[in-house]
Design a protein that fits this description.
The two termini are 46 Å apart. Strand 13 and strand 14 form a beta hairpin. Helices cover 42% and strands 17% of the residues. The longest helix is centred in the N-terminal third of the chain and has 22 residues. Among the domains are: 67 residues, no CATH class; 214 residues, 3-Layer(aba) Sandwich (Rossmann fold); 133 residues, no CATH class; 72 residues, Arc Repressor Mutant, subunit A. The protein is flat, with a radius of gyration of 30 Å. Strands 6-5-11-7-10-9-8 form a seven-stranded mixed β-sheet, sandwiched between helices. The chain has a four-stranded mixed β-sheet with strand order 1-2-3-4, covered by helices on one side. By secondary structure, the protein is of the alpha/beta class.
């Protein structure tokens, strides 16, 4: 028998008014404009729909339906499917996916777009499985799930978001993904309003409260693409938990979706950002998302073999191309579609590959729009536009404002450019006006609308934007001091594909700006542009840094008293003397060459790491082995169940377990934590370690309770 209380809650939540009731059925009314509906819901299994008299309500003008449900879940399924039109909504999402693929094909000069599955790093561990299927498996649970998907600018976050949506629609047809693309709503400074705006746009006939409720029920998957777009515009203080703050932070809005008992599933895509780095974020997760599984996924650099195959790789090697530097999806798409003969002369250097891509776009523009501008002239206009956008701190803007910028850039060159039309005998169109010419430039191949529903435009992608910023710097169209924050990231990531000479020149140009940035950004800039680490860091926190091939960490005390979380050391060289009194959480070491330094004890701590054993042994070579007289497993467990307390805390963040521990004891405490994890007494999650209450007897024995 169905519960009347549960039925009333569900139907009233969906906007119904309760009518007469009996021990056989409940009646609910819905009146919206022209339509008047009545639903009679049977409460008992021994009553059939045919036994119910509908005539009274039909005479009152209602369209009446008698419904019989197996249980409350079936009621919820029916209401959700009916009001949210799951089939129609998901078909619309599939059409959006198809349109997105067509847009990518246009951006790739007509080359068929295909999502290439690459490796990814999950919570510090390199994974070779399909990242789309992995995200699907995380969502296919009853538990709360927050996935933070990180990648550098132009490395496939939005493409991955659309692939995830397509896969979710095909896998869970009774549920609906809701995608919020923050790049399309950058004027709103508070994330809560952006989210409500997206909800109103996607479900205009439903209340935001109902949509938010179904997000909490796990029936609507929330995908937030470009989370970093609002970072610079949002007030953020993770330690301020005051409920009366005027500016509600993005993370607080996210936390509200993960209320106790909810089944919320959220995927955030973002560039690597300081908002997700450090002890403040870990404490915030511990305090605000105590029941949520938080998974960090970083898209790894693409595999050259997966994209272009062995034969083309061989040709590139013959020209001494720096293969690591062309691992950019845009360039790889170009090389993938290019015929093999082009690799003999067109693609003989890293800078030539970039130049060929830009030249193809700009030459096509001469024909596509009958644009009588040389490649160099188009490049100058677009790089000046990039400079002005950076100076104005915008990456997209209304088309009228972009035209105003272009008008200022073209300036007194209008007459020269327009007069060229009179000499173009192969062009049938008449000489355009200045306004028509500006319209051509605003529809340039390097620019694109952010969506078909929006009148805002920006650069084609972050890779193009970054290349244009670099061009602007090289021609002094912009001061290096203006290129900071996310624009610095975009330029550095784009130029990671260039030759060592061009990368070194960019680093030298931006050095004064880089010096003022965070240590995380400084280190990334050094690794990406210089392929080396130029300075020393002390008492810093690094999260998700990728130390790849050709990186040598060999200088004495390059890192001192610093913390590394979810970092990957892959095929790099490490001298043990380069690290002193450092802690590593969830870090992975693959094929690392270890050079043993002179320091006998570098005082390093490894917790929940993999592949670090050789590094750890080389960094700790004291002749006299210390015999532990302290029961460190008890020390660890008492951080969960403090002496004198009746109850234990369920979870602790990784590094909080080492806070307040003497340096001489940290290695032993870390070993005790790993030991307890192996015994199943502690359970390792993404950013926390939980106490396994099913092992309570063993826990009591260890702490003598």
């Amino acid at each position: 028998m169905l519960s009347s209380e549960n039925l009333i809650k569900l139907y009233t939540r969906y906007g119904f008014e309760q009518g007469p009731s009996s021990d056989q059925c409940l009646v609910f009314f819905s009146q919206k404009g022209y339509f008047q509906n009545a639903e009679i819901v049977l409460l008992r299994d021994d009553v059939s729909p045919e036994e119910i008299d509908k005539s009274e309500y039909e005479q009152m003008g209602y369209s009446v339906r008698v419904r019989s449900f197996k249980d409350a879940a079936a009621v919820h399924d029916a209401l959700f499917s009916g009001f949210f039109n799951t089939k129609i909504s998901n078909n619309r999402l599939l059409r959006e996916y198809t349109n997105f693929c067509k847009q990518q094909q246009d951006k790739l000069l007509g080359t068929k777009y295909q999502y290439v599955v690459g490796e990814f790093i999950e919570n510090g561990l390199l994974q070779k499985q399909n990242v789309i299927q992995r995200i699907r498996s995380i969502f296919d649970t009853e538990e709360q799930q927050l996935i933070i998907l990180e990648a550098s600018a132009g490395y496939g976050k939005t493409c991955t978001s659309f692939e995830v949506i397509k896969f979710l629609v095909e896998t869970f047809p009774s549920k609906i993904p809701l995608m919020a693309e923050l790049s399309k709503n950058r004027k709103a400074s508070i994330f809560r309003y952006v989210l409500l705006s997206e909800i109103d746009q996607k479900f205009p006939s439903l209340s935001s409260e109902l949509v938010t409720y179904e997000i909490g029920e796990g029936r609507i998957f929330l995908i937030i693409d470009g989370f970093d777009e609002l970072l610079s515009k949002s007030y953020l203080n993770l330690k301020d938990s005051s409920p009366n703050k005027d500016a509600q932070t993005m993370l607080d809005t996210i936390a509200q979706l993960f209320s106790e008992g909810s089944k919320t599933k959220v995927l955030l895509t973002t560039r690597k950002s300081s908002i997700f780095v450090g002890e403040d974020f870990d404490d915030w997760v511990d305090n605000h998302l105590s029941n949520c599984n938080v998974t960090r996924i970083q898209l790894a650099v693409p595999s050259l073999r997966d994209w272009i195959g062995a034969e083309k790789i061989k040709k590139l090697k013959e020209h001494d191309i720096e293969l690591d530097n062309i691992l950019n999806p845009v360039l790889l798409s170009l090389l993938r579609s290019a015929p093999l003969e082009d690799f003999e002369n067109k693609y003989s250097s890293n800078d030539q590959i970039i130049a060929q891509y830009i030249e193809l776009l700009l030459k096509r523009e001469q024909t596509r729009q009958s644009l009588p501008l040389e490649v160099s002239e188009q490049l100058s206009i677009m790089s000046r536009l990039a400079a002005e956008m950076v100076e104005c701190d915008i990456s997209t803007e209304d088309i009228d404002f972009i035209k105003y910028m272009l008008e200022d850039i073209v300036g007194d060159q209008f007459s020269k450019y327009l007069n060229r039309y009179e000499m173009m005998s192969d062009v049938l169109e008449t000489k355009p006006t200045e306004s028509e010419f500006l319209n051509k430039l605003s529809h340039h191949a390097l620019l694109d609308r952010v969506s078909s529903q929006s009148n805002q435009i920006g650069f084609l992608n972050d890779f193009i934007f970054g290349l244009m910023i670099a061009e602007a710097l090289e021609h002094d169209y912009i001061a290096p001091s203006d290129v900071k924050g996310k624009y610095l990231d975009i330029a550095i990531t784009a130029l990671s594909t260039a030759s060592s000479e061009r990368r070194n020149k960019l680093y030298s140009t931006l050095s004064s700006t880089i010096d003022k940035e965070t240590s995380q950004r400084k280190l990334n800039a050094s690794i990406i542009l210089l392929k080396s680490i130029q300075e020393s860091f002390e008492s810093e926190y690094f999260d998700g840094i990728y130390f790849g091939e050709k990186i040598s960490i060999i200088n004495f005390e390059t890192f001192k008293n610093s913390i590394f979380t979810d970092c990957v050391f892959n095929n790099c060289e490490i001298n043990t003397d380069a690290f002193r009194t450092c802690q590593f959480y969830n870090c992975s070491f693959y094929n690392v060459k270890i050079v043993v330094g002179e320091t006998l004890n570098c005082e390093l701590t490894f917790l929940s790491c993999s592949g670090h054993q050789q590094f750890a042994e080389a960094a700790y070579r004291e002749n006299k082995k210390i015999e532990h007289t302290v029961d460190y497993e008890r020390t660890v467990l008492e951080q969960y169940w403090k002496p004198g307390y009746d109850m234990a805390e369920p979870r602790r963040a990784h590094q909080t377990l080492l806070r307040g521990v003497a340096q001489s004891d940290k290695m032993a405490v870390a070993e005790a934590i790993d030991s307890l994890i192996k015994k199943g007494i502690l359970i390792k999650k993404a950013r926390v370690i939980e106490l396994n209450f099913e092992k309570m007897e063993e826990i009591k024995n260890i702490i003598h309770r």
